[in-house]
Structures are given as structure tokens and as C-alpha cells.
Amino acid sequence: MSASKNNLFTNLKYDFPSGLVVYLVALPLCLGVALASTGRSDLLFSGIIAGVVGGIVVGFASGSALGVSGPAAGLVVIVLNALDTLGSFEAFLLAVVIAGLLQIIAGLLKAGIIGYYFPSAVIKGMLAAIGITLVLKEIPHAFGYDADFMGDEAFIQKDGQNTFSELLNMIKYCSVGAIIISAVSLGLLILFDKPFMKKIQLFKFLPGALFVVIIGTMLNLLFGTIVPEWVLTGEHLVQLPVASNANEFFSFFKSPDFSAFQRVEVYTIAVTIAIVASLESLLSVEATDKLDPYKRDTPTNRELIAQGLGNMTSGLLGGLPVTQVIVRSSANIESGARSKMATVIHGTILLLSAIFIPKYLNYIPLSCLAAVLLMVGYKLSKFSLYLGMYKLGKDQFIPFFVTVIAILSTDLLKGIAIGMVVAIYFILRKNYKHSYHYKKEEHHHGEVITLQLSEEVTFLNKGSIGLTLDHLPDNSTVIIDGSKSIHIDYDVLEIIQDFKAHRAPQRNITVETKGIKDVAAVGGH
């Protein structure tokens, strides 16, 4: 893989089919997020712009080999509220541009280091939760119930429904045509996953998702000839804006209202977008790197700069905010992508198809695209992941499982926050227990107890060390050995010094210290 990392075109035979699959996944998600974010059909193209920018601009600027960026469902509520507050889409675009600038500054200031502090159990919980969410959210689309937008990740939906009530509504409003198309599509995708299919020359280059989309579209056209009541129309199909001429196409692009520079609300919204988009991107980076079969590390500061460039470009062209998105990234990985060319290709195809063939794309049923996303969701949340986390013990499994439940019952960022709290509790608990090694020996003149401090002793260990010193037996000898410690916090040194000077003599305890500085030398008093 070393040569392929240096030459983006080396793996084109893998990256092109993957880019095509990601494009098919991204197309309905870009449109769905745009409709949910703006509530206006005339602004649907803003999602496509964000998808194109996420693919091409962020794709080239990012150091992520497999991450895919675009409009994210996690920003829907923020965008909706921002439009209500600012009163115009053009003023909102200015906030997106400023948010991008803030992300670039954050990247230059090395704020991307935050990405390295997400515990592995929480990231794996996020992947599993997104997988389950995808399955639950896409089942209604597979049954022909398309009231909610494709790509929604939140438990409580914009229309007041939730993930589970939507499954009940689906039963009332399902469509025979959609069920047949999604069932055939799912069957074909499972078939494409079989090893023997890879041996067929045609299917080495033709992605299963593309084949499924072609078959699904042909089936729907066939229904129109033989069983008209099964035909899917309107909201059950892709709804890409179609321009009748070049002028109308260019009217889809909007410019920021720079006169809104004076409004405080613009900056408040920009900061909010910058923080949320950066967190989502860093979370996705961590998750994507875990899924990467070649285990490459994405430079997080460069990622923030790339996302900032993406948001500035998207805002200037009339697009929604962009983040790296785990659903598209995982689809990219599952399709066999090797380098960032796959995400650039997906953005390029998105742009070319929006220009040249929007009318034909609008024949694609959402139910066959739902089948593609169902497979992505299943692969993200396989049973083996849960079993593997369970075998690692409760310190890993509980934060993992709590993260899954929290994301499923709230949304991505709230769920991650809850998972982080639980993970940090277990980290502190472990840290509390393992700050030193306790050894007791019997000697003729009494007990000799050795406390061997660990390599790193921080203020978090202050409580456990203090408690241990308080419970030492009277008339004993204690050796506190810090000779193997690289760093001992001032707080801990202070406790040791206080015990040695005041409390130990009162209980006839002899204290010897090794490799531990005098607290006065550290504190300067």
C-alpha cells in the first residue's frame, strides 16, 4: 500500500466503482438533508452543492484516505433554527463561510488534537448505533413510506414522529411496488456479497449498488406497463431539480449576503456550526480510521482545515454546511476504496449527473436506494462487534453499549456525550485503582510496606493514594518509591509530604521516600 498512498491514480480500478457506490448513497441523502434543513423545494440544490464540495474540495484537501464529506443530518436542526433567526438563506450562507474560516483557524491552532481523546469504546458504539439507526430508518423507505427524509439520524423527527412510530405508520402506508423493488434489490446485494460473484469478470468492475439501481428503476418502469397501481411516483423517487436551460441551472447557486456582516446572530450561528461540524468530522475521522483495512491515521488538524475550506466554498456557492459523514465513509470502505480518489470521484459524478442527466436520475425509486443503505447499516452493526466488545470486559462493553442506546434514543452528538461521560467514569475508576503497587513484608522490627508509584501519577490519583496512606497500620515502616515514575503531580507530592511531616509521626509510622522531590522544591514555598 505504500506506493498507492503516493499515487492517487494507482488504485483507480478500486476507487472508481467505490466512488460510484458512494455517489448513489449520497444522492438521496444530499437531497433529503437539504429538504429537511431548509423546508424549501427551491433550495434542494444546496444539498447537491454541499455534496460536490465535500467530494472534490474536501476530498483533495483532506488527509483522510477513505473519509467522505457532505451535508450532514446532524446539522439539520441548527440550519432550520438559523434560517428562522436570520430570515434569509443568503445571510445563513455568510454564517457558513465564517464557520469555515473558524475551522481553518482551529486547524492551524492544532485544535484537531481533540479527535485523539475519543475512547475507542465510544467510537465503536457510535458505529454500531449508526448501523442500527440506518436499518430502522431505511425500513420505512424500503416499504414505500417516505414521509421522513432519507438520512435522518435523530430519534425524534422533525414531523413529531420518532423512529419506532414511523415503523408503525409504515404498515398503514406501505406500497406493494416499493416492497417488491426493495426485496429484489436486497436479494441482489446479498448475492453480490458472495465470493463467487467476484470471480465473474463483469462484476469485478460493476458495483452491486449500481446494478441494483438499474434493476430497481427498470422494475418500476415495468410496473407502469403491467400493474399501474404498483408504480412509484413523486416523493417515492429521487427528486433532483431539473433546469430547462443554462441560466436556470446557474440560478440554483446562491451568494452570501455580505451586508449581514453587522449582525451578531450571524457570528453566533457561525460558531455553532463550526463547533458541531468539527466535532462530527473528528468523530467520523476516528470511526473511519478504525474501519480502514489498512489502518491509516488521518491528520486531524489537516482535516479541520479541509472541512473549513469545504464550508467556505460551499457557503460561497450556495451550499449547506459540510462535515465528514460516517454513512458515506463506511459505504466507501465497504465498496473497496483504496484512496481519496474515491471521494473525489463521487463528488465529480454528483456534479456531472446534476448538470447532464437530472431528468433520468429522477426515475430512481428510493426503495432500491434504501436497500443499499440497509446493507451498509447491517455491516456497521454486526453481532460480532457486540461479541468482541463483550469479551473485552465491562470497562469497554458498558461505555460501548451505553453509547449505542444513547444515540438510538437521542441523536449522534448527545449520544456521544453520554457515552463519553460513562467512558470517562471507567477511565477514572481504573486510574484510581492503578496509580501504585502495594507490597507488604513482615520483618522482625515490624511491618514494612512498599508503595511503588506508577509511571504517571496525576491529581486523579490523589484520592486513592491519600486513602491508602490513611489506612496504613500504626507502628509500621512505609517506603514510597517514585523512582520509576516519569511524572508525579504536585497535588500527590503535597499529600505525601504532608503525611511524612505531620500525620505519620503521630502514629509512629516511619516514612522513607525514593525518587520523590520535596514539595517545597516543586511548589516554591
Automatic annotation (TrEMBL):
Residues 12-402 form the SLC26A/SulP transporter domain. It is a multi-pass membrane protein. InterPro entries: SLC26A/SulP_dom, SLC26A/SulP_fam. Its main location: membrane. The lineage of its organism: Bacteria, Pseudomonadati, Bacteroidota, Cytophagia, Cytophagales. GO terms for biological process: transmembrane transport. It holds the Pfam family Sulfate_transp. It comes from Dyadobacter luteus. It is found in: Membrane. GO terms for cellular component: membrane. Keywords: Membrane, Transmembrane, Transmembrane helix. This is SulP family inorganic anion transporter. The chain crosses the membrane at residues 20-36, 43-66, 86-109, 116-136, 170-193, 205-227, 266-285, 398-428. It comes from the Bacteria.
